[in-house]
Amino acid sequence: MKHIFTYPTALVLGLALLATPKAEAQQFSKRKQYNSIGFSLNAMNYFGDVTPETNFTSFRFGATRPNVGVSITRRFYPRVSGRLALSYGRITGDDAKAANQSDPDARFRYNRNMSFRNDLLELSGTVIVDLIENRNNYLKRPDFVPYVFAGIAGFYHNPQGLTKQGDYVALQPLKTEGQSDGYSLVQFSIPFGGGVRYRINRNFDASLEIGWRKTFTDYLDDVSGAYAPAGSLTTPQQIYFGGGNYNATASLTDGPSSNTFDGDGGGITRSRTGDFALFDTPGAKRGTGDRTDWYIVTGLSLNYILTPRIKNPKFR
């Protein structure tokens, strides 16, 4: 947990502290604070081993999938709000569509021919810092406000692969890289990003936002290290993949005759001959192994401000 407070988080928290000096906090009374609830419709992408390039900025627009979310936000100070959000969405990757077989640096991934999908359920808490302040109540809020945010999130994920029979099967229980303990399906991430908020009317705001999630796992795509040791395949793999001599092959490979594939990046190694001799033998490289995966959420949200109850002063 020592890596939880990364630079984006520290930056936003620092801005929040600078934006709320003691005198300003006292001046911004509870009468000016308010809550809002929101609904968001987003697009999801991921950065990892099954992308055009194995670096942080590489993702494929064709792999974009939907994400939906709900949130509740509390405005505490003229610039600072806190948000609790719950979202659900999918990320995907496909070597057959992402890797260029003519690129010397991508031929490995194209031949690996891995594909996956992964549904993520995320609960996040973030601090939002507005770049334009509002010292008044919600009725006098600015029409247009850019903002930045950062925080912490926990998420549940479950990567799946497509079999030759056209079924999806959970990959984590299969220990596709021979992991003795597998990997956890519950993970943490650092959400950070920015957006712009627009006032529609008295109670409604619309926002356009982009947010990155820095995770602490390399298994969002079930690809990280090396091919599994011989004999490590389990009964479920033999059931789903038709049995036969599947030792030493990655999950979802099609066994000894691997020159055929399903054409949809179903995770079937294309060749083990020529330049790809011994391609997926035990211990052969399967993923980068030195970088964690990321995912990104981009979208629109509609927020409804819950009209605060303002108590008028009593006169005697």
In brief, what are we looking at here?
The chain is mostly beta strands and 316 residues long.
**Percentage of residues in strands:** 35-45%
Assign the structural class, choosing from mainly alpha, mainly beta, alpha/beta, alpha+beta, or little secondary structure.
mainly beta
Query: What do we call the CATH topology?
Result: Porin
The total count of strands amounts to 9
Major β-sheet profile: 8 strands, antiparallel, barrel
Shape call: elongated
Give the terminus-to-terminus CA distance: 56 Å
Oligomeric form = single chain
Q: What's the tally of helices?
A: 5
Uncertain regions: pLDDT < 50 for 5+ in a row? 235-267
From the alpha carbons, calculate the radius of gyration and give it in angstroms. 24 Å
Helix share of residues? 10-25%
CATH class membership: Mainly Beta
CATH architecture field:
Beta Barrel
